[in-house]
Structure formats: C-alpha cells, structure tokens
TrEMBL record:
GO molecular function, one term: DNA binding
Keywords of the record: DNA-binding, Transcription, Transcription regulation
InterPro entries: Tscrpt_reg_HTH_GntR (IPR000524), WH-like_DNA-bd_sf (IPR036388), WH_DNA-bd_sf (IPR036390)
Protein name (record): Regulatory protein GntR HTH
C-alpha cells in the first residue's frame, strides 16, 4: 500500500479495511489480521494500526473479541457505506464539483464516462 501525504496514515488504513469489506474480501464475522500482522504487511507502526482499529470499532465497523482479535461486525457493510459516504460528501465532493465547474464538464459527459468506468472496472 502506498500512502499519500495529504491524509493521516491511520485514516488511509481505515479506507483500506473499509474497501476490503465493501469488496467482500472480508465478510461478516471474519477475523481481521492482528494489529501486528497488518502493521508488518503495511510497513507501519502497530500503534497506527491500533488507532485505525479503534476508529473502526467506534464506527461499529469492526468488533473486538477479547483475547481472540478483531472481527468484521455484523452490520459492517451498512456502517462502512454510511461512514465512507459521509466522508466523500463532506471532503471529496466539493472538490469534485469545483473541478467540474472549472473544467466545464457537463453531467452528460460525466455520465458517459461513469458508465464506461463501471463497465471496464467491475464488468470486464
């Protein structure tokens, strides 16, 4: 995983975990990698991963089974969508709309490109 400079690493790791849940690579009640395992895999400090897991636990996306580890929560998919949607609408959408306006991209062109993207990316 390559980290960007413009966002805290623990938040980028949270996006990584959320994406795995959204893509159903990690399913309900599935055990997540331990803090140490994920830290080694992503080459970060275990405290950073722990901070990520604490954030996701506070959002009811993952749960901690004491002595066993962290697991994908029962309603994780709905919670991830809500969490990510809020982030997108608050943080990314205003920048996106600004660029659409500045570059004079209309909704018809945007829709055409969106449909092509979906076909190429998710229905190859």
């Amino acid at each position: 995983m390559e980290f960007r400079d413009n966002k805290a690493i623990y938040l980028q790791i949270a996006e990584y975990v959320c994406e795995h849940i959204l893509l159903q690579k990690w399913n309900t009640d599935q055990k997540l990698p331990s803090v140490r395992e994920l830290a080694v895999e992503l080459e970060v400090n275990p405290n950073t991963v722990m901070r990520t897991y604490e954030l996701l636990q506070s959002k009811n996306i993952i749960s901690n089974k004491r002595g066993i580890g962290f697991f994908v929560a029962e309603d994780a998919l709905a919670h991830v969508k809500n969490y990510r949607k809020t982030q997108f609408v608050d943080d990314e959408l205003p920048i996106f709309f600004r660029n659409l306006y500045l570059l004079n991209i209309d909704f018809d062109e945007l829709q055409t490109r969106y449909i092509a993207f979906i076909k190429e990316t998710f229905n190859p």
